[in-house]
Amino acid sequence: MIKWQGKINEFRSILGLLKAIDLSSNNLMGQIPNEVTNLHELIVLDLSNNSLDGQIPRDIGQMTQLLTLNLSRNMFSGEMPSSMSEMHSLNDLDVSFNNLSGRVPLSTQLQSFEPGRFTGNSRLCGLPTTNKCLEPVSENKGDGESTNELWKWFYIRGATGFATAFWIACSALFLNRRLRHAFFHFHNCLKDWVYVKVLVFIARVQRVARA
């Protein structure tokens, strides 16, 4: 309890009064306890230049009053928590020289920092870093569907051509010589037509696959 201005005040958790924590360059090891994210009044958290590892606490975005967050030169791994996009008060962030990966969460605040604040994380991508993120496989789904449609078209046209040629051949067996000659001429033309269509189809499939 603290007596101030004639009043007695009881503080159940003195940690809730903390405004700044600076434990930089203290050879700290292990992971950041998730309970740290309950310090909602904290405005400065500096844990830089230690040997801390594990992931950044996923609820760190609850620390909405933070103005400065320095986690640089540790061994943090995994992705930056998506909750960090809610830290709109941040004006100083440094997560450089860790083992972070994945895309930097999208927010007007995080994307406003210099790329140097994220450097040293070779698998971290997206703005403001200089590393481009690979497009998700799902975004290429349209190309796969286009290829499937081409195969369906090929099978349908092939079956139709075969059926037509079969019935013409059967008819020619029961008709006169002139029609038989016409059939063989048609057969040669059909063979050339199918050959050209197959080449065109293969070229289209290759273009779609390269797109």
Automatic annotation (TrEMBL):
Keywords: Glycoprotein, Leucine-rich repeat, Membrane, Repeat, Signal, Transmembrane, Transmembrane helix. It comes from the Eukaryota. It is found in: Membrane. It is a single-pass type I membrane protein. The chain crosses the membrane at residues 154-175. Pfam families: LRR_1 (PF00560). The keyword Thylakoid does not apply. Its main location: membrane. InterPro entries: Leu-rich_rpt (IPR001611), LRR_dom_sf (IPR032675), RLP23-like (IPR046956). One of its GO terms (cellular component) is membrane. Belongs to the RLP family. PANTHER family: LEUCINE-RICH RECEPTOR-LIKE KINASE FAMILY PROTEIN, LRR RECEPTOR-LIKE KINASE. This is Leucine-rich repeat domain, L domain-like protein. It comes from Artemisia annua (Sweet wormwood).
